[in-house]
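Readers outside the structure-tokenisation community will struggle with the description of the input data as it stands. For illustration, here is how one protein appears when written out as sequence plus structure tokens:
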Amino acid sequence: MWERFGYYGMTQIIVLFMVQQLGYTDNNANLTFSAFTGIAYAIPALGGWIGDRVLGSKRTAVMGAMILVIGYGMLAVPDSRLLFIALAVSAIGGGLFKANPANLISKLYEGETAKLDSAFTMYYMAVNLGATLSQFFTPIIAVVWGWHAAFGFCSAGMALGLGNYFFMRKHLAHVGSEPDFRPVDKKKLAIVIVGAALSIAVVAAIIENKQYARDLAWTAFFGMFVIFGMMIYKGSSGERKGLIAVVILTAQTMLFFIFYQQMSTSLTLYSRRNVNLDLYGLHVPPAMVQWFNPLWIFLLSPVLAWLYTHLSKDGRDFHISTKFAAGFLILAAGFFVYGVSGNFAVDGKVSLAWMFWGFCLQSLGELLISGLGLAMVARYVGPKLRGFIMGVWFLAVGISQYLGGFVANYAAVPQGVTDPTQSLPLYTHLFNNLGLVALGGTALAILAIPFMKWLSATGGEATSH
């Protein structure tokens, strides 16, 4: 919860900070942010391996959290020269942290499919509670006390989370990866610390240089499929079927996160330029529109968790591939809401209500796709490979987050354009096209359902044997 508190608070305002405070163009801000988020989601592939094999899941998560406190704290320093290094520190910290809590949760309900779906949905709700809190307060702090105070708020939240973990860690004493139950190997710890320091320098250069980021994204994309190919080739019959299922669902997840990336990029900039942000006499900060996402997830998650458990008692729970297909259909409806909103604009600005209901549909689609992504890995991959494959899943998410920045730039508003009637058609055209793409994703997901069910029925689920 507290890690998401810091991350979403920072990512909620960083694009507007670059555009409004640092004078970045839409194009440059979108690509800088997407390079950061792409790396932040890609590094857990390594963080999961370090947690599984080197330091232990719990120790690696704590180290990552400590680095995150420093990264967000650096953004709180009013010196624009620190931007890229601060983003790099935050990316490395998040990479060490991110895969490991999910791996620990999967160990709590080993072999219980229905409980895994419910547990990960509630886990998703818990982390979005952190996002709900930070995304509500961070934009307000940015307006009242300034951008850097808002970043400091994110750092303080992460520090509070660390303190909370140390008080509560006894409840996880029996859970962990194998290295967690052995004394700390000081040599390995030193290697990880030095590696993290060197990685920060490399990542800062990649975030700053758009060509480096683009080349890395393509390399990671091909590398991910090589990894999956080798694991499928070397795996047993049951492992092979499970990994094939993960590849199919991961591809669908990648498509989803291109849409997800629009929240911090095109949808936030749309809110700034083309949404009437007056709410009963109060002016809503444009970054705060993103708060609708964690709010809806917090409200909808327990309903879905209850529904999954209730249906599973009678053997009527929907297959995970069916949930993915439904998620894309609902996601398409959400983006069509954004697109249609332009037809009701007054002087180039639409009502805030369009964003509220668009985010409702987008968030429900997110729960059905991304909310079950980690449960998918826990279901189809055995315990020995699970931490690493969760990291690879995050790598896939990182690649699609980076691609999302390129998609957002189709609605990049030229510098100097301030008339809402000129920017409105750029955004609505993008949103309608994204709705059509989501419908295509729905069709592909529906076509994959019979094959996915066959894989599950013939031993593809790791928890079934």
Remarks:
- The two ends are 32 Å apart (CA to CA).
- The chain has one domain: 2-464.
- The longest helix spans residues 420-460.
